[in-house]
């Protein structure tokens, strides 16, 4: 099917975002390594010498550019298109790490990359067209429809139950508690980001949307959702092995975001059943490829240490405690996994 101009802009921005974010991981990692060599203390054990390393700041700048591109992409294209394309940043990071950082990409990892690319192509081909939006008040009407209000109410109730009932009891033994909170709040944050992005787009086009209280309300929701999301994602990463958190979080977050977008923006209303099924199949392929790639990379990192390669010294290592109490050692040169989650793809 043909692409509208807005959809095409959204695709280009989403792909650019993945390229910048994926490259930023590698640049930051090189900066962390340089800083560690210069100071003798790595970031994970309290070192802050990386703040004086230009290469690390270049990585941060690259990541910011990628996040801005991702933010703007939501103003042009549906979330069911933009969100899954965020998985491409993991591919770019893995491929660059293979050639630049000598972190070998295994055969299963290569298969995961191919699956992500194939699934992304299917999603792009069958993605719905973005419905023209003329004001933030129109988005507010969508956000206050009965079906989406029911979704929001369900999310809030589930988040409160998980945070105040299950979190104290089994939050540190069941990975679904913390990742569930992150994913539920993440779906609301993406809807609000799309609303704010669209409001800013219209404002820059000469139709000022900053005059309406709805715009500021959506900004408040973005801030609240992102802070909550970051808080519980940090808890998940600090409690469980990244190889466990990463695929579960990505699957839940992306699935709930697409569900929220379909309910609020009715992305599938004008599509044929064949296109919808194709999109779902492409989405499943992307999820499977992401899980395979991420799990393969994390298994390779952890197994290298279990195979007898001890860290060089106590100041050059850090650890993550997995759900079964195992203490896994990782090179501090690795980019913190929180970056891969929090800054990927709203």
TrEMBL record:
- How the protein sits in the membrane? Multi-pass membrane protein
**Broad class of where this protein is predominantly found:** membrane
> Keyword Transmembrane, does the record have it?
yes
> Which organism's genome codes for this protein?
Hevea brasiliensis (Para rubber tree)
Q: Where in the cell? A: Cell membrane; Early endosome
Subunit structure comment from the entry: Homodimer.
Q: Which UniProt keywords apply?
A: Cell membrane, Endosome, Ion transport, Magnesium, Membrane, Transmembrane, Transmembrane helix, Transport
Under the heading PANTHER family, the entry gives: MAGNESIUM TRANSPORTER-RELATED, PTHR12570
Annotated coiled-coil positions are none
Pfam families per record: Mg_trans_NIPA
Source taxon at top rank: Eukaryota
> What does the record give as the function of this protein?
Acts as a Mg(2+) transporter. Can also transport other divalent cations such as Fe(2+), Sr(2+), Ba(2+), Mn(2+) and Co(2+) but to a much less extent than Mg(2+).
Family note: Belongs to the NIPA (TC 2.A.7) family.
Family annotation (InterPro entries) = EmrE-like, Mg_trans_NIPA
What name appears for this protein in its UniProt entry?
Probable magnesium transporter
